[in-house]
Amino acid sequence: MVPVTTQAHRLIRQFVSPGDTVIDATAGNGHDTLFLAELTGANGTVYAIDVQANACEACLRRLTSAGIRHAHILTGDHAELLSWIPRSRHGTVAAVMFNLGYLPGGNKQIITQPESTRQALSAALTLLRPGGIISVVVYRGHPGGNTEALTVEAWLADAARQGHHLLETAVPETASSETGPMLLALEKRILEKRI
User: Fold this and answer.
1) What are the pLDDT digits (tens) for 165-189?
2) Looking at the domain assignment, is residue 18 inside a domain?
3) Distance CA 30, CA 176 (A)
4) What is the pLDDT of residues 73-87, one digit of tens each?
5) Distance CA 60, CA 150 (A)
6) How far is residue 96's CA from residue 47's CA, in Å, rounded to a whole number?
7) What confidence category does residue 154 fall into, taking pLDDT thresholds of 50, 70 and 90?
8) Alpha helices of the chain — where are they, by DSSP H?
9) Which CATH number fits the domain that encloses residue 179?
10) Domain that holds residue 75
11) Within a domain: residue 179?
């Protein structure tokens, strides 16, 4: 089975071009940030945010060793994405990636939280351009993971009811499918104004 992170990258490739602005809303160790930076090229703009300073440092090390210089790494809560991203970029972002849970190799007690993730998803939708994508990899095998997964699924269902396009759900087909990681994604659509 192809890992959900690889599936997320395959999906994002369909929406991002060189020169685009993209966001890694959970920088972690920098794997998605590096992927986005390579995808957008030197003329692109990458914002990576993480609440943990050590995650931002790991992300910076990964990017530096790859020779990437067009990424902005920010230490902060992804719930506050709108305030972290310059106003001139609002409504222009091609993709926002989320990889929820805890920092691999870090403190497993520090995890993303359902409410801040819900706020971050709403901010991401505002930041996206029409035709932009949000991808969310959710890990359900740790305490709080299932609750966060349900929050993400509910938010996505509500966004789909508003007219945005729910793209993909990938869940491992194994005995651990109740606790395994899953990929969820949403494409932003131009919504008709209701009178």
Assistant:
1) 988 666 554 445 677 788 999 999 9
2) yes
3) 27
4) 999 999 999 999 999
5) 32
6) 9
7) very high
8) 4-13, 31-40, 53-65, 81-84, 114-127, 145-161
9) 3.40.50.150
10) 4-187
11) yes
Amino acid (one-letter) located at 174: T
What's the total number of domains in the chain? 1
pLDDT at 143: 76
Residues 6+ apart with CB under 8 A from 177: 171
Q: Residue 191 carries which side chain, given as an amino acid letter?
A: L
Cα–Cα distance list, 33 to 21, 58, 101, 179 (Å):
12, 11, 16, 25
- 75 touches 53 (CB < 8 A): yes
Domain assignment present for 192:
no
Question: What pLDDT is attached to residue 171?
Answer: 58
Residue 142: predicted pLDDT: 77
d(C-alpha 97, C-alpha 184), whole Å: 10
**Token pair of 27, please?**
């920088």
Nearest to 63 by CA among 92, 83, 40, 85: 40
Q: What torsion do the CA atoms of 158, 164, 165, 171 make, to the nearest 10 degrees?
A: -30
- Is 195 among the domain residues? no
Place of tokens 């957008």: 40
Q: What is the DSSP string of 81-120?
A: HHHHS-GGGTT-EEEEEEE-SB-TTS-TT-B--HHHHHHH
Structure confidence by residue, pLDDT tens digits, 20-35? 999 999 999 999 999 9
Torsion of Cα atoms, 149 then 185 then 117 then 9, to 10°: 100
SS3 22: strand
User: Would you say the pTM of this structure is higher than 0.85?
Assistant: yes
